[in-house]
Amino acid sequence: MVDTIKIVLGISDPMKLDCGRFSPLTIPQLMRGRGFNKTNLNMAKQYAKLGRYMPRLTLYKRFNEIAPYYELGVEFSAPKLLLGNNFEELTGADLPLLLEALQRALDELVGYVFSIEDLRKAPIIAFHPSKNIVLPHITACRAVINVLAKLDITMVYDMHRTDYRDGYILHLHTNTIDIAFYDKLADLRTARKSTKRAYEKEPTLQSKIVDKLIIENEKNILRYEIRLNKRIKIKQTYPELNEWTLNSMFNEEICQKPLLYHWQKITKSIDLISMDADKPYEILHNLIVSKNGKTLRQNLAITAGLMITNQVGYRDFQHLVSGTADTSTWYRLKKELVFPKRTRLDWVLAIDKALHDFNPVQETSLTKHAFDKTVDFGKLSIIDFEKELNV
Fold first, then answer.
1. I need a surface site. Which of 28, 41, 205, 350 has the fewest CB within 10 A?
2. Domain carrying residue 35
């Protein structure tokens, strides 16, 4: 489902907006200045203290061939704006309610009421399709991400692995796309301490569902997110669309498409790697009985290669081989690293199913308790109202 979206709204007269909250330039300063420029309105932290979520705004001054013109960039997390958290997921049916919530938020921030139709037709310039995947109860996010990091991922992506005390992030990126797999709950706990250390930089709200998840700590929720941060990449990803607006892109199929495509591309070599390394004897035995046409010496070499790949991953193995031989040697060796067909791991099947079914995650999917509670995150104290009232 979609999380973060950034749209642009044309502004004929910026002085109609409430000028006092923008910085570092006031709106009159922006209009008097020369050349392209921008000024911001970001009150996320102030509103988060009140338990509310608000979009981040940027007013741009641009030029065409004749005169300057102005656009208001509006960046927001759709589920946070509507639900107060981004664990639960929205569908295309939620768009009317989302538009109304966005209209109210902009009115409160800048004192101007944009029409629902203007918001609906607003061009999208950043789009983050994502999926929260509730893993099988015995599967840890860290173990899944550790396996994904070992896969045969093309060198087109820069890959970074961030390991911290309470979580683990696999981050793949190019100049136009970012792909991330991370432990959603662990990232949230990190963000409670410092948003600078978390992958998600926005301040978190003390919403009921988030508080329950932190306290219960009984779910493994893998977050899979793709960040399309340029118009050209959005258009390349969705060439079948005639327009790239909030109305045309806020639906399940649009969000599912890149998530499924990149998952299949990243995990095409998943069957070669398991959570725990197989014993060398079992690998050799399976190769021999598969009648792959190799000699015993060749199967021994393949066994060694599969064991090394399982231990350190494709990239480190490639660097090792490339340091002592030419590039063609690695690609010839890579073709030999073929394991006999076997049943895919349960967690792989669970993620496959979640991405193919693409059902929205709701509160009932996340928590098993339904009681109300308040949380003081200074001392992490919990009040169960039913017990307090002796109900």
1. 28
2. 2-266
